Amino acid sequence: MRKLRLVDGGHLERLQRLGLTSYEARAYLALLRRDSSTAAETARLAGLPRQRVYDVLASLVEKGLASTRPGKVVKYAAAPPDQALPSLLVQHRLQLEDLERDTESMLDSLQPAYLAGQEHSDPLEYIEVLRDRRAINERFAELEAGIKTEILVFTKPPYATPVFEHDEGLEVVSTHRARSVYELAAFDDPRSAEAIRRYIEAGEDARFVEELPLKLVIIDEQIVMFGIEDPVAGRSILTMIVVEHPSLARLLKIAFEAVWRTGLTFEEASARFAGERRSA
């Protein structure tokens, strides 16, 4: 007579689909091998941790898949499959009925709230104002991750993250069209100059101007992120505004192109900076 292989992936998977945990399924299959087994024997046959087997067996007894046999050492016996499995199925049906009732109850209460919410919209919901540097960095990372084709940037202080610390941008410029305009003052910091050079080597087109009007990011002619200065606190306070508005994005891209055309290349800007230092 062919020996039935009980502990295999097929039986375990089906028992778990009926609601048993992996440990419970293994324990039940182990109990089927003998008339009865102690907890220690069940743990050995099922390959379960000894410290967990008592909880597992207690759960099987509670679910009607096993029973205890008192004695000097308590033993456990599996319920016959023709009783245990239909019992599990009944429990599933009862749970499904409970879920159906809960769903109907939630529909009755949530649907009116949804319909009421559709009638209310914030006219400025496409505008975000960010002041916390961590929030600014996280939002910019989200925007970078969502780029499809193009990113345009005006880079100037104050920085939420200095350019030499933003290594994630190297992947962006190597896989998308990326153009950035920097202020010539970036050469005052060798770390920034070196980081910009690495960006250019990775694929970024860069230009340099004497001064930029503001910090600006334009993504896919759809989303803009720009910085504004507090007129009282000055440049030390960083406030970034994110606007998802294609018309505004296209308009600001025209301004970007105008500034871009006046800029110097990295080599030209570097030579100018070196000349100014020699003459200073």
Helix and strand topology:
Elements: H1 9-17, H2 22-32, E1 37-38, H3 39-46, H4 50-62, E2 66-69, E3 75-78, H5 81-118, E4 127-130, H6 133-145, E5 150-155, H7 168-175, E6 177-183, H8 190-202, E7 205-209, E8 216-219, E9 223-230, E10 234-244, H9 246-262, H10 266-279
Parallel strand pairs: 5-6, 6-7
Antiparallel strand pairs: 1-3, 2-3, 4-10, 5-8, 8-9, 9-10
Helix pairs in contact: 1-2, 2-3, 2-4, 3-4, 7-8
Description:
There is one protein chain. The protein has 280 residues and is α+β, with helices and mostly antiparallel strands. 51% of the residues lie in helices and 20% in strands. The chain contains ten helices and ten strands. The chain has a seven-stranded mixed sheet with strand order 4-10-9-8-5-6-7, sandwiched between helices. Strands 1-3-2 form a three-stranded antiparallel sheet. Helix 8 (190-202) links the parallel strand 6 and strand 7 (205-209). Helix 1 (9-17) packs across helix 2 and helix 3 packs across helix 4. The protein is elongated and about 100 Å long.
Strand content: 15-25%
The assigned CATH architecture of the largest domain is 2-Layer Sandwich
**First and last CA, distance:** 99 Å
CATH superfamily of the largest domain: Endonuclease Chain A
For the record, the CATH class of the largest domain is Alpha Beta
Order of helices and strands: HHEHHEEHEHEHEHEEEEHH
CATH topology type of the largest domain: Endonuclease, Chain A
Please tally the β strands and state the result: 10
Number of helix segments? 10
Computed CA radius of gyration, to the nearest angstrom? 33 Å
Which structural class matches the secondary elements? alpha+beta
| Low-confidence regions | none
How many individual domains?
2
